[in-house]
Every structure is written in C-alpha cells, then in structure tokens.
Amino acid sequence: MDMTVFPLPLRTERLVLRPFVAEDFPSYADYHSRQQVYQYLYTRPPAGYALREQFNEVINNVLADDGSAFHLAVTNESEEIVGEVILKLANKEARQAEVGYIFHPEHAGKGYATEAVRAIIDLGFRHLDFHRIFARLDTQNLGSVGVVERLGLRREAHLVENDCFNGAWGDEYIYAILSREWNQHHGPE
C-alpha cells in the first residue's frame, strides 16, 4: 500500500501522529523497556540489540504484505512522544488490518490512546480502504478494552486460555469494526 497517498502527519485536537525518526530512539526505548508496558503483550520487553532492531523495523514502515506493520509516533502538545499506534496488515486481499497501540504509563488516563487510535482507524478506512479493522486485547487490560469500546468496536470473541506466558494462561478479546459501521458512527471524511 502506498503510504505517500495519505496525509502525514495526522493531527488531532491535542496530538500529532507522525512517522518515527532515528532521533526518537531514546523515547521509544524508555517506554519499550518497561515491564509495565509489556504486561499484557505476552512477551518480555526487548533489550539491547533486540530493542534497537525492533526500532529499526518501526522506522522502516511499509504496509506491503500480510503481517507488515505501520507505526506512528504519538506526540502531545509539548511534542513529547507519549506512545505509538500501529496498523498491521492482516489480510491484504480481504482488506483487513489489526490496530495496536502502546503508550508510556506516565501518560495514562489522559485520553491520548482513544484520540490516537481514533485517528489511525480513520486513516485505515478513509485512506487505505480497509474493510475491517480489529484489535486483540488481553481480557485483563481494562484500559485497552475501554479504548476500543469508546470507539464503537464490537466484541466478537473471547478466546479462553489461548496464550501462555511465564507459565500463566491468558484470555484474549477480539474487537472489530467494519468501514461502513465506522462511517456511520464517526461521520464521512
């Protein structure tokens, strides 16, 4: 998918969503190295070389093949990176994407995630022509559940003990919304 055809950066009432650049690594590393951030991601925080490699993939965004992901840094009014939003191409032929988001814990509770996720979903439907966008969430991650529910995504599944991390089984919710439903709730472009 050609990412030059849509407007970047994306601007919301309080935020700017823009591609990551090399100079963002310290901010990215700060929140990606926190166990609290990875609590519901079924993996340990990356460190050292793995963290740098992960960041290098993030700054080389291309939505081309199934499984590829597009990351945008989310900055606040002070131009400070508060987190990121992600669109992952789940199925190109079926025009489906997964939305994801990771925010620095110091910025929780300010509505930034809801505002940024709204913008990236809108981009996915209006500029990338996705038919369906979904989110996969740990059932205990109540903050993330609140984000997708506030945006009108519908809970489609509750997967029971579908993943194991550190010897503990976890459940997962699948939330989704179709393009026509999004346009109905969030208005035309």
What does this 3D model show about the protein?
It is a single chain. By secondary structure, the chain is α+β, with helices and mostly antiparallel strands. The protein has a single domain (10-186), classed as 3-Layer(aba) Sandwich (Aminopeptidase), CATH 3.40.630.30. It has six helices and eight strands; from the N terminus they run ββαααβββαβαββα. The chain has helices at residues 25-32, 35-38, 48-59, 112-126, 142-150, 179-186; strands at residues 10-11, 16-18, 69-75, 81-91, 96-103, 132-138, 154-165, 168-178. An eight-stranded mixed beta sheet has the order 1-2-3-4-5-6-8-7, with helices on both faces. The radius of gyration is 16 Å and the shape is globular.
Largest sheet: 8 strands, mixed
What general form does the structure show? globular
**Per CATH, what is the topology?**
Aminopeptidase
The beta-strand count equals 8
Helical stretch tally: 6
In spatial order, strands of the major sheet run 1-2-3-4-5-6-8-7
As for the number of domains, it is 1
In CATH, the homologous superfamily goes by the name: Gcn5-related N-acetyltransferase (GNAT)
Structure classification: alpha+beta
State the CATH architecture.
3-Layer(aba) Sandwich
Helix content: 25-40%
Q: Pick out the low-confidence regions.
A: none
CATH secondary-structure class: Alpha Beta
Chain-wise SSE layout:
Elements: E1 10-11, E2 16-18, H1 25-32, H2 35-38, H3 48-59, E3 69-75, E4 81-91, E5 96-103, H4 112-126, E6 132-138, H5 142-150, E7 154-165, E8 168-178, H6 179-186
Parallel strand pairs: 5-6
Antiparallel strand pairs: 1-2, 2-3, 3-4, 4-5, 6-8, 7-8
